[in-house]
Amino acid sequence: MLQNELFNNVIRDFNAGYWELYTNPDKEIWSKKFYESLGYTQKEIQSTIDFFLEHLIHKEDVDVFRDNFLNYRRNNVNFKQHIKIQTKTGNYKLFRCATNDELPVNIKSEINLIFFFEIKLEPEQNIAKDNFYYKETAQMTETGSWYVDFHKRKSYWDFETKRILEYPDDYVPSLKDSASYYAEDSQQQAADCFFNCAMAGTPFNTEIKMVTANKRVFWVRAIGKPVYNESKEIIGIRGVFQDIDDIKKKELSLQKSIDIIASQNSRLFNFAHIVSHNLRSHTSNLSLLVQLIEDIEDPKEKIDLIKEIKQISYSLNTTIEHLNEIVAIHTNKDQEKKITKFQDALNLVTNGIGQMIAVGKTKIKSDFKALNEINYIPAYLESILLNLITNAIKYKHPDRDAIIEIKSYKEEGKEYLKVTDNGRGIDMNLFKDKIFGMYKTFHYNKDAVGIGLFLTKNQVESLDGKITVESEVDKGTTFIIEF
User: Fold this and answer.
1) Residues 228, 358: one domain?
2) Whether residues 328 and 250 fall in one domain
3) 124-146 pLDDT, tens digit each
């Protein structure tokens, strides 16, 4: 028996019997209080789960208790359940059985425990109440129960599951149609959960997208655990669905806001870095040169230094222009959007850099059939195309002519633009987190500045879009813009 003063004090206050479960599946120790509550002595009955299921527990409660017990022993899945147990006199008493987490304090037990709290009211009265409270609880928490029977190859839903999934009360769920109850991008997740539960007895508790009878996609929390027979074989899965669509959407919206804030903070950090570092470098150089000019007597040396001032002034002006462009993006993001055809924007860009395309022997292939136009700021779309196309030409592979493929399309209600080239590619292991940084370059072109992709990312994100990149060295790069 447990030798734990804290445990014994708690149990004394609870006035409850309990079981101790050990590693040996055939070893359970039943407390003295448990025997007393049923009117037996320890010598009169066997303290094993098999004896309990066969001779003591009411037949109506056998299946659920056996499942709960085995899941608790094998997978540490805590449970609470009302059951009826036969006393020595042949009558049944109603108990609420619960596991370790029922206690108000942590008894720090290294073994699993099941407690049996006797309910003094008449069992029939409590069962009726339980049924009422079950329905009330199910409706108020939007939680429906379900069961999959492997032997009969049938699926069973309670009234609340049918309501959640918007099926009529007389609807009979089908295992053949089980995949259709889940959103397309969640079907594999559902299959994995059910397979692992059915084959390995692994319970699951996951958030997943389901589809109602009216084709409405929504989020649920799906909880399931295996069902066992007398031979302790898995014969089904029992669980619940809880509608968490409102909560999940708020969570996703909050996460999106957090991502936007993090992105904005990153841009502010970049901006602050440029202002504090780059501008200070230019001004420091200017101050130093002015000081040198004042200290030098030789006119020729002064002229040489003045020429350097010209170069520094040019660099300073360029940096300020870049900063102005960044500020302009976020200042102009509220300007009016217009229906803009992708082909028109591409034509404007290619006409403007026609010489660059010709000299680089660049071939541009476009496909806008799936998505011909978009409601967007025209100047932004042109700028995005310009930066991605000129980058593909600048960083073409030395052994082949540049081929750029541009495609617009729709997927799951979202609009995308994909730009793929066959250029040098980018080493994603080295530069994945730096690709869209300001003044970041990944090749050795003398005219590389590292501002184009930074501006493109800012333009896309300023209108709540997203840009991602896939690349492989010597094979090429693909940019995907989600508008």
Assistant:
1) no
2) yes
3) 445 445 545 545 555 666 788 89
